[in-house]
Amino acid sequence: MNRKTIDTGPLVGEDKLNVAEFYRDATVLITGGTGFIGKVLVEKLLRCFEVKKIFLLIRRKENASAADRLQRMLEGPIFDTIRSTAPDAKERFAKVVAMDAAFEREDIVDDVDKTKLCNEVQIIFHVMASIRFNEVLDQAIATNVTSAQRLYALASSMAELRSIVHVSTFYANCDRNYIEERIYDDVPYGGLDRIQVFFKNLSEEEKERMTRLVLGDMPNSYVFSKKCAEAMIGREFGRLPIGIFRPPIVISSYREPEPGWVDCFHGATGLCVPVVLGKTMWYYGKPEVKPFMSPVDHTVSGMLAAACDIYRRQCTILPVEKPVPVYNFTFDKNRFAFGDMVELVGSGLPNPLDRWLSRIKCRISPWKIFPQMLLWLTTLQARIADEILAWFGKRGSNLKVVAAITTLSNAVEYFRCHMWTMDNSNVKRMLSLLSRDDAQRLDFDGDRIDWRDYHKSYAKGIAMELMRKSHRRQQQRKSSAATRD
User: Fold this and answer.
1) Domain residue spans in the chain?
2) Phi and psi for 151 in degrees, rounded to 5?
3) What CA–CA distances, in Å, run from 415 to 165, 171, 268, 364, 455?
4) Mean pLDDT computed over every residue of the chain
5) Which of 84, 102, 147, 171 is surrounded by the fewest CB atoms within 10 Å?
6) Torsion angles phi and psi, residue 428, rounded to 5
7) Is 80 exceeded by the pLDDT of residue 481?
């Protein structure tokens, strides 16, 4: 098998990426800008690059318009660095423009906004995705495939378009042991179109049963739908200046905008919440498995460089037929095992006793029986604690927390039991093409991460987000009580 990745751009030494110039006075379009990765992307563009404008396609949510959601986002702590260090912070924030988007419609924006986008946009980052692992397949496809299809159809009419970064996941092809930097167009059952037609007339119960059948060796509908999206891009939009960026498990920030920043508890970060709370929780998995992980600031820096690299490839004369470039944003030399993760996370706890106890309370067990027994006892303990709180007229959330962590643990169990090898030649080549200034501005070499240094801020970041979530819940309860009165 030929495992060599073909680069369609200039050879190293013939050209350099000039990322700062690429974004100077550029108009950028972002989907998923209010999500975990999207927020860091917007913040990085505003703080480090002289962009002209950033359009965010935002869906209306709980009676909040796109403009309301944008304002709420910009008031968040992730943008404190810009507020405190940039004299022109107000002007920078004014560059971000919210647009109401409805991805369930063929035309995702209205005619006025469509004209603006087609005349002004030069760079697109499609970050939006549904990350619910247990979603029925046709719903996952609607969000992760059809939405991208409609966006790229719109992009085909953009006069100034330079580059599109489609954010996928490294695990879109996790049914393979070795993952290359290329599109795998082997969607089963006759391909995406046949699957969509088949699901169209099924009942909800039938859809659930058929989802399990169609997934086959794939662990969930999220990764399967991401695979379908990649195949769709290769078949329908290869003529566009588009590339596929595959991050692995994305975790809290390393250094930017502040060490340890996180605003959600998906994946690996969610499983570390019990360590921070001092709870007891054992997970089934193989302690020796070494997962691919990437801090969110490293991931965003890689995405920003990839957009420039996609444009570089498009500017070459030969070959005329260019394959869609794929970037496996994974680094092999500097991984740690799941079995070491609890000790690393615990090293960031302020109390020495808590650091020692965390190694006993939270573990990765290669035998299912022990996590199952402990879960039963923990659930019983949480139920009793909530009942006692109820006697005193207080609302307990212990059982809810245990249930949420258990659901998450079951959803990602597959990734604690499997390990992959990969090719990341395009990412390595991209790193080598960075100028010295851009390399300082975009630090994304995962092989150079000091994980012990990283985890000094990891637990603190989780604790801070837990406090923010608790404060928001209290404010919502007060607001609801005031409304009733």
Assistant:
1) 19-262+291-334+420-451
2) -65, -45
3) 25, 9, 10, 12, 21
4) 89
5) 84
6) -65, -40
7) no
pTM of the model: 0.91
**Which residues contact residue 144 at a Cβ distance below 8 angstroms, ignoring those fewer than 6 apart?**
129, 130, 222, 225, 226, 228, 229
Calpha distance 161→238 (Å, rounded) = 14
CA distance 35 to 333: 29
- pLDDT tens digits, one per residue of 133-175: 888 999 999 999 999 999 999 999 999 999 999 999 999 999 9
- Residue 485, CB-side half-sphere exposure with 13 Å CA sphere: 6
Residue 440, burial from CB neighbour count under 10 angstroms (0-12, 13-18, 19+): exposed
Task: Return the structure tokens found at 405.
Answer: 């962590």
Query: What are the φ and ψ backbone dihedral angles of 175, each rounded to 5 degrees?
Result: -80, 0
DSSP tag of 281: E
Nearest-angstrom CA–CA distance, 223 and 246: 11
Is pLDDT at 7 greater than 50 in this prediction? no
Helix or strand run (H / E) with residue 20: helix 19-23
Rounded Cα distance between 293 and 331, Å, is 9
Distance (Å, whole) CA 169 – CA 164 = 16
CB 422 within 8 A of CB 179: yes
Backbone angles phi, psi at 364, to 5 degrees: -105, 120
- Distance, in Å, from the CA atom of 284 to the CA atom of 98, rounded to the nearest integer, reads 43
Overall residue count recorded for the chain in this entry: 485
Neighbours of 324 (CB within 10 A): 22
Using CA atoms, how far apart are residues 298 and 331, in angstroms rounded to an integer?
A: 12
> Distance between terminal CA atoms of the chain?
71
Q: What are phi and psi of 462, to 5 degrees?
A: -65, -45
Query: Is domain 19-262+291-334+420-451 in CATH 3.30.360.10, yes or no?
Result: no
